[in-house]
Write a structure and sequence with these properties.
The chain contains 4 helices and 8 strands. With 260 residues, the protein is of the alpha+beta class. The protein has an 8-stranded antiparallel beta barrel. Strand 3 and strand 4 form a beta hairpin. Helix 1 packs across helix 2.
């Protein structure tokens, strides 16, 4: 976690204590609490209070990946011998098409396009905050520059996620801050997002996309072998193509856990 993030933790004590107005992320002239931001900053405030009580400022907890634990799910566990290599918070869009579809038919998926932000130490140090982060990040626009951090956690970019065909999810983890290769992956297992997962942007939408286990395919560079998409927020399409264009996108965020 960068110093600016740690400063945000300290400053946020005031944010959670003062009465209500909170900056709405997509309209800088409008003030309004959102449930996602409320939950996030309340959790941040608890960490700040603990730091004060233990007089541990400004020392950070260790970035020990053995302390990072994926949320429980029905997905198979990582293969024996694999270790956690990286955790990223993904923010982007799930893409769909209604070309050739009748209004009563379901949209067809066209993959995803997302920026990946380094949440590795976030996962080790503050797992409760990370669990809230996808829904919070969903309320902010995707940064347009690789040099921009992802609000509100100030996470730096660690890669890019896209599809090279309809069945090959690609994760390019070769960026200036790290070189972990380019992973070409295919779906090994899926499970629905848990009940109560975010519906979508501003709490409106059609639900969160499933949690996934992906496996590396031929052509992968680097050592990553398996990827989990968990704690998804948004991304699901409407149930049918009525009133939809030929192509459309749905905003989403998710955690991605990379194992090598």
């Amino acid at each position: 976690m960068r110093p600016s993030t740690y400063l945000m933790l300290a400053l946020s004590t005031a944010i959670v204590i003062v009465a209500q107005p909170t900056l709405r992320p997509r309209d800088k002239d409008e003030y309004d609490w959102t449930p996602a931001l409320q939950s996030y900053y309340q959790a941040v405030g608890k960490h700040v209070a603990n730091i004060r009580e233990t007089k541990n400022f400004p020392k950070l907890p260790p970035c020990d990946l053995t302390l990072a634990v994926m949320p429980p799910s029905s997905l198979p566990p990582p293969n024996t011998g694999l270790t956690l290599a990286h955790v990223a918070l993904g923010r982007g869009t799930q893409n769909y098409t209604c070309v050739g579809k009748t209004p009563t038919e379901a949209p067809a998926p066209l993959g995803a396009l997302a920026q990946l932000y380094n949440a590795t130490c976030f996962a080790a140090r503050y797992p409760d905050l990370l669990a809230l982060a996808p829904n919070v990040a969903l309320q902010y626009p995707v940064p347009t520059s690789d040099k921009a951090s992802l609000p509100p956690s100030n996470l730096d970019i660690s890669g890019h996620h896209y599809f090279i065909d309809l069945t090959t999810a690609t994760f390019n983890l070769d960026v200036p801050s790290q070189q972990q290769g380019v992973v070409l992956s295919g779906k090994l297992a899926a499970t629905p997002a848990p009940s109560g997962s975010p519906l979508g942007l501003d709490g409106a939408g059609y639900g969160s996309v499933p949690w996934l286990l992906l496996g590396a395919k031929a052509g992968t560079t680097g050592k990553i072998q398996q990827i989990y998409r968990v704690n998804t927020a948004g991304g699901s399409p409407p149930p049918n193509c009525a009133n939809q264009g030929d192509y459309f996108e749905v905003q989403y965020a998710a955690e991605y856990w990379f194992w090598s």
